[in-house]
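Lab notebook, bench 4. The sequencing result for the construct came back, and we need a structural model before the next group meeting so we can plan mutations. Quick request posted to the team channel:

Model the 3D structure of this chain.
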Amino acid sequence: MRIATWNINSVTARLPKLLEWLEGAKPDVLCLQELKCATDAFPYEEVRALGYETEAHGTGRWNGVAILSKVGFEDVLRGLPNQPGYQADDALLPEQEPRAIGATCGPVRVWSVYVPNGREIGHAHYRYKLDWLETLRQDVAADAAGERPFAVLGDYNVAPTDEDVFDVAAFEGQTHVTEPERQALANLREAGLVDVVPRPLKYDHPYTYWDYRQLAFPKNRGIRIDLVYGNAPFAGAVTDSYVDREARKGKGTSDHAPVVVDLDL
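Done. Here's the predicted structure in token form:
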């Protein structure tokens, strides 16, 4: 079984790239993040023509997540059961953002997650990010401890270690590398999940994101923030995992590359 995750950075803008990649990589399940489209605006028919059913969760603004599956769906959940909302400075009420969707696809249960960015240390969005990660830990703990293969895949917006950043000094005083963020990931792993670290197709480190600016991709100035956290039955079945760096090449691409995991179930 092949399962993948990809921050697509607008499924509408990247649809030709998505369809091309699906035809070539042929995952059984694909978790997508940052759809930037409403649930009813997802290109269902286009991916159905390639054999995929889709469960999507989006509002049409930012964020948005989806799962594509060739092996069907059961027990679909949109949003974490106890997901916190984000209350902007000018908002009267917290907003429940479409950042998580879970489903059972054949023998595996997965969540596709798009963790809040955090914006700046000390910003309300940073506190929201930490709260969101703690809620994720609590809400997936039962599945993580279970005997069914289970994984939380997506854009975590946190580099787990200094090795996952091209130059940690370049991130000094910024989000994505702070101790509280990394501790939140450690807490998630302690719930019974393993970081399935992919192999790079080029260079020494499996970065998954490169900024569009300053020639970051050709210079390999990247970070690893797209992660696959699987429980013991999932991690024990992994036969290969890699970052498909080729999907980041060329014009009109997402600024993230897909992470692919092959399993022997």
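The chain has a mean pLDDT of 97.
Will bring this to the meeting.
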